[in-house]
Amino acid sequence: MKGYKTVDAYINGSEQWGSALEFLRALLLDTELEEGVKWGAPIYMIKGKNVIGMAAFKQYVGLWFHHGALLKDKQKVLYNAQEGKTKGLRQWRFQSLEELIDAKEVIIDYVKEAIDNQKAGREVEMSKKTTTVALPELLITALTEDPSLKSSFDTLTPGKRKEYAEYIETAKREATKLSRLEKIKPMIKEGVGLNDKYK
Fold this sequence. Notes:
Helix 6 (about 145-155) packs across helix 8. The protein has helices at about 5-10, 20-30, 95-100, 105-120, 135-145, 145-155, 160-170, 175-190, and strands spanning about 35-40, 40-45, 50-55, 60-65, 80, 90-95. The protein is about 45% helix and about 15% strand. It is of the alpha+beta class. It is elongated, with a radius of gyration of 23 Å. A 6-stranded antiparallel β-sheet has the order 1-2-3-4-6-5. The model has no long low-confidence stretch (mean pLDDT about 90). The two termini are about 20 Å apart. This is YdeI/OmpD-associated family protein. Pfam families: DUF1801, OmdA. InterPro entries: YdeI_bac, YdhG-like.
């Protein structure tokens, strides 16, 4: 999706869902939420804190509740779009303007609850990323046998060390693991990350 700079541009850029987005926008602007654009899509905030976003896709138009995991969700309408990855974010999908109109009162209830949660300072606790990396046996052996390789590896960021560990670990065959190890040794010694060229 294009990186729109204004909500108007976002809505005008969606021929299929323009009227549905206008409907949602009117509901959200009828509250104390402040409108803005983040990541190229409309966002609604309280004192700069994300509360709700809206977005149009091919099959549906959706409301995103940034701390949706805290909502009671009595109607069981919220999705976790990335199960196992997303902790707080929840999405409510609508397939038509008619569906939105029928659900208007329920949408308002969910929006009010999200606003109340934000004002009360309720937020989903985000787990801290672990910086320790479990290294594959093959890599441990190579580092033990080559002190200069170990020295170079130890100076890499935790993220780069993790990339290398996963690169070897995800290979299914032992021969592939060995060939991957040989490929990354010079890269480690140069102090570069496995995916640096893509960043």
